[in-house]
Give the backbone structure.
Amino acid sequence: MKRFHKKHILDMASLNAEEIDHILNTASALKEISERPIKKVPTLRGKSIIHFFHEPSTRTRSSFEVAAKRMSADTFSISASTSSMTKGETLLDTVTNLQAMNPDIIVMRHSASGAPHFVAKHINASVINAGDGMHAHPTQCLLDLLTVRDAFGKIDGLKLTIIGDVFHSRVARSNIIGFTKMGADVTITGPCTMIPKGIDSLGAHVTYSLEEAFSDADIIMALRIQKERQNNFFFPSEREYATIFGLSYDRLKSINKKALIMHPGPINRGVELSSDVADSTESLILKQVANGVAIRMALIYLLMGGTRDAHSN
Ligand code: CP
C-alpha cells in the first residue's frame, strides 16, 4: 500500500491490518529523522495542526508537538482550562470556531467517550483521537505495536498479557483490538471488579489466575490505576492492590523469566509496578515514549497525503 486513504484516526476498529502495517512501516522509516543532528524535514511546511486537549497529558501532547515540529508543520495548542469552554461554550461551537481558522488536522483528547467521532462529523479538518474517555487511544496502541515489533521482529503469534484497571482503560480496549488484529494472543487479568463484562468480545482471553496470565507471556503490560475516574470502590486500598496485583522484579522473575514489560504511563510507582521493574532492562517503557514521536510523525504525514517512500529529506 503506497497511499493512505483514511481522513481521520479515531479508533483501532476503523483500521485494518494492512493499514496498521503501513503506519508502522512509515513510522519506522521516519524514525531516523529524530536521530539526525538537525531533527527537522520540510515535508509538512505550510500545514497547520491544532492540539486541543480537554484532559491532562504529558506523553501524548508533547510527542504530537515534537512530531509536528520535526515535520515543519505549524502548531497551535488549546486546553480546556484556558479555552472559552470554561465560560460555557459548547464543544461543537469550540471546534467549529477552530475550524474557521482552517487547520489541516485537529488532534483531540477529551474526557467524553466518542467526542472525537462527534467532532469529525462536523468539521473539514482531519481529526486524530488522542484519547477519548474510556473508549479508545489509537495512537497509543500504534506506538505499542511498533515497540513490540521492534523488540521481537514480529507481532503475529506473540502473547500479550494486560493487567490492571481494564475497566477505565482506553489503552486496554485499543490494544486488545489492535494486537489481535495483528495476530497476537491477548490475555486480560486483574481484580475482577476492574475487568468489564463482555471485554472478551473484543478478542481477549480473560483469566483471574495470575500464574496462568503471566507464565508464558512474551509481554506484560501493566495499566495505571485511574484514580481520577474511580467513583466507586474497586479495591480496598492501593497497598492491597500492590500486594496482590503489583509487579515487583522478584515476583516477575519467579513466574516468568523472559517477558518484557510495558506501561502506557503515567506510572503509579509502587502500585502497579515497582521501580525495579519499571527501570529494569526488561522495561520497554521509554522505548514506547520514543516510538510515540515516530508514530505521530507517520500519522500526520499520511493524513496529509504522504506516501511511505516519498518523505522529503
Ligand atoms: N500514555 C498516555 O496517554 O500518557 P499521557 O496521558 O501522559 O498522554
Summary: Residues 57-61, 131, 140, 264-266 surround phosphoric acid mono(formamide)ester (CB under 6 Å). The two ends are 21 Å apart (CA to CA). The domain at 17-136+292-303 is CATH 3.40.50.1370 (Rossmann fold).
